[in-house]
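Figure S4 source data
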Amino acid sequence: MTDMLTAKGKYGLKALAHLATLEPGGMAQAMDIASANNIPKKFLDAILGELRNAGIVYSKKGPGGGYTLARPPMQINVGHVIRTLDGPIAPIACASRTAFQPCPDCLNVQRCMVRLAMAKVRDAMSDILDNMTLADMLAMKETRKHSETRKIGRSHKFELIQHL
């Protein structure tokens, strides 16, 4: 199965999430981001360069330098990050709004059932990703952590009841 999110997109989101956990104004070295998130350093350098060129991260060279978010996490849109690193979100080129390419085997693009179905998938994915910020992603991690804690607490309670 092919991943719809490339390794580049995934690593970029992981790097941004890492930067979002820093104190305001804090900087992180690419090496630290790479080792903390299991990302190949050379690949991360290229990704951070693209994110810098897109105005998503800011970099500073020299002592005390590194990378930081260019805007607060609540102002960084996940859909924009993915499009910056991976290109269009559509699952197939004929369903893309920005990089449309007809399939070579398609006889009628306007009536193609596969294209119409994939356009709905594209719209659903875009709706979710374009309404999600980096801050929302971080909140999901916290929500899950609290949810797992509650589950663990319930299972221990159940075991205690069974033991009695």
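Figure S5 source data
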Amino acid sequence: MPLLQNKNIPPVKKLTKYKILTIYCKCGEKLLKYKKGPGRRLLKIHRDRITEDFTGIFINDYSEKGTDIYCRSCNERIATVQIVNGKYVNKVNQGQLGITK
């Protein structure tokens, strides 16, 4: 059976425009600088988009899937380690982070 090809589908473009955000914990601890793509909320922190990690808890963390990441100063949960499309991603706890542009 021949494969059907749709020639009207445009190729997927790689994301080239990012907003660089500084991410803080609610307690005021400066956590990281992150290149965020389009969209409103910060739902996941991809490790390859982190430009600067001030605490070392995101880039140097090679935990297993399902492990929680805690703030060093207030001990509140910031994110959970997940695997999305074969990459390790930190899924963000929405109420715990503050973001400045």
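The chain has a mean pLDDT of 83. The chain has one domain: 19-100.
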